[in-house]
Amino acid sequence: MLARAAGNLYWMARYLERAENTARLINSTTHVLLDLPLGASFGWANLIEIAGLDNLFQQNYPEANEEAIMRFLIEDTRNPSSILSCVQYARENTRTLREVLPAEMWERINSLYLYVRDNAAIACRSRRDRYMVLNNIIEQRHAIIGLIAGTMSHDIAYQVLKLGRNIERADMTTRILDLNSAVQFPQDSVLHEALMERIWMSTLNSLSAYQTYRRKISMHVRSDEVVAFLLCDLRFPRSVEHCLSEIEDCFKLMPKSQQLQQLAAQLRHRIEQSPTSGLSSVALHELLDLLQAELGEIHDVLTRQYFHAYLDDSQPTGTNQTEIEFAGQ
Amino acid sequence: MELASSEYTSNTAYDELLGRDLHPRPVAQPLFAYLNSLDENELAARRQAVDATIMAMGITFTIYSESGNIDRVWPFDPIPRVMARSEWERIQAGLKQRLSALNLFINDLYNEQRIIKDGVFPAEVLEDSANFRPQCVGITPRFGVWAHICGTDLVRDRDGTVYVLEDNLRVPSGVSYMLENRQVMKRIFPEVFRTTNILPVDDYPTQLHRTLAALSPRPGDQPVIAVLTPGIYNSAYFEHSYLAQQMGAYLVEGSDLIVGSDDVVYMKSIAGLQRVDVIYRRVDDAFLDPEVFNPESVLGVRGLMRAWRSGNVGIANAPGAGVADDKVVYTFVPQIIRYYLNEDPILANVPSYLCMVEEQRDYVLANLDKLVVKPANESGGYGMIIGPRATPEERAQFAELIRANPRNYMAQPTLDISTAPTLVDGKLAPRHLDLRPFVLQSDQLYATTGGLTRVAMRQGSLVVNSSQGGGSKDTWIVEEEAL
């Protein structure tokens, strides 16, 4: 597979995953907000902070209210991580990749793009419209995943897609876990514990993990256990551990991947060894930061190894391989 | 024919589907029976479904403009253009005859130049040719074939005669739209395929792959074929990507390729350098290799000509093939066919006047108001004048251009090119159209079943180029026994 095409494909997978994750995060956050008592505040601004987009937001909006933040996260193309931006980049990249993807892929992604383009503004109109539009986006993304699962040969292109998806997903899971340290309650609230449970429930929901968690771990939603589950459960497809094991499997099938296999194995090892119970929110935040940095390291090495291997002898051309990493990284 | 718009009463051109009495021609009768079975609302709904489908399929082309490049949705008219198989087979034979003669001609020009020595083709035309590449002299590509892919533009005049308007031998585009048009029709009008026996068009990618694979310097192996595109900003990028996908080839840009010191072309894959056997290039000659042609080019591959000359890579179309894609050379094609094949041309050329020949130039200058004058080396309908539609000032300006550079111009009478019913505001209005079939040659000759029908969507307009507001139609070659 061409190095340039592989780079475009990897980013295409990341953009789609990011768009879906952003949609999920907004929907589950809206949901939990409705349950919070008056006086408890969960700033919408946290959504922007965990994505490392606070500076960019402040440059463009005077006030961090729900409406502005939704516009920024959903339809604002000045935000390279907005849902519309991500879907647009994914489409542009797909245009250059039709030959390595299942034939129907272009039409699916093009349709998703047209849908988001025509409905992003509607999604910003009201909570009800937003829920419907974001849900449709998630569904269309699932159709794309289904198409890949059902029709794509497990060739190198497939591995590259899977890498992009899992690196983005693992990164997002660490960021969603980080979200809860930002919740503030009224000082004298006796409801603290019950509220916290609600919020962790929302975390699980945003990752479609609630049902599995209840079945496998506990009927009670406790922070320690949620953190342990979302970091270390090998079987749940959105846990960091599972994503890393997928990443490691991909590397095993890629050429010249010794160093990358090692990096992925080391990071898995680190997660397995990290204590997840009794962590203060500061310690948890530090752990998550560290995991993000190490995922970033894997991304950097694989980019150098595969996509930019020939940069010395030519200028890169083509589309969106620009680093629009989360700014916090 | 209640669907026909009142514009039809004043239509003087030959209509592909409707006879003079506005009754459908025999080939179009099943189609019209079907169209008449749809009520107005149904037809409008199908029309909308067509637009939505094209949008979802992302069938676009790019227009260059000052404010950046815009991706336009491919304009498509759902009323097909229908032609009988017997007529098509004669055209097909003519297309193959023409391309094989042109390839013999190109190979002769780059080698012995017998045709010049024998006084059939003037040396001065060659000397002034903008597309003759001295760098290619002495080369005979495999099978002696230079133009492997040719897009030939055909039009029909008032009396029903089909003429060749031009032979596009450089990087002709449009075949992907021919294929996608059929897909759209199948999705939106599936019933109509039951009433008429329409020949399929979708073997083109297979035939193209075959044609290219035959050029591989490593026969026997599964050749690595790459489509070389100038990149996403090229107006035909959609097609490059589409054809690569349909053929299972790699879509590459110049920067993805490298020529080693062994004069072999490699592509930069994630596993290391991988050899490329055949390049279907959609980049003009001038940009193909900065070592040999335009040194500023970033679209090409340094050393590509070396690799080609050493026989280590097949290139389609071969560099230099464009020498026969020249409107002055065009006027000699009938003689070229007779000279190399000793056959009469099956397809007619439009009668043409060469401005380089004094008497003919005088005639052109005296009759500018009746003629179409075209520059030798432009494509896409640029730089030409349609005399009857130009103002006296425009004609005077153009006359100066001709006097300044007569070799660069040829003129033809304005043809009353044929029309076909086209859906305009719920009615069928006559719109002018042409037909671009695609012809392939390497070890074998092949011509598409039909081709891309391009239609001028504006009333009375003769310009069918998509860059200038043209649209397209599905083209049906139908089996007559079924009629």
Structure report:
The complex is a heterodimer of chains A (329) and B (483). Chain A has 329 residues and is mainly α. Chain A has two domains: 1-152, no CATH class; 153-182 and 191-312, no CATH class. Chain A contains 14 helices and no strands. In chain A, helix 5 (83-95) runs antiparallel to helix 6, helix 8 (156-179) packs antiparallel against helix 12 and helix 12 (240-253) packs antiparallel against helix 13. The radius of gyration of chain A is 20 Å and the shape is globular. Chain B contains 14 helices and 23 strands. Chain B has helices spanning 29-37, 40-57, 85-109, 114-117, 123-127, 175-188, 192-195, 204-213, 237-247, 304-309, 327-330, 333-341, 358-366, 392-404; strands at 60-63, 70-73, 76-84, 149-156, 162-168, 225-228, 250-252, 257-259, 265-269, 272-275, 278-281, 314-316, 348-349, 353-354, 371-375, 385-386, 409-413, 419-424, 427-436, 438-441, 445-447, 452-456, 470-478. In chain B, strands 3-23-22-19-18 form a five-stranded mixed sheet. Chain B has a five-stranded mixed sheet with strand order 13-5-4-20-21. A four-stranded parallel sheet of chain B has the order 7-6-11-12. In chain B, a hairpin with a 5-residue loop joins strand 8 (257-259) and strand 9 (265-269). At the A-B interface, helix 1 and helix 6 of A face helix 2, helix 9, strand 7 and strand 9 of B.
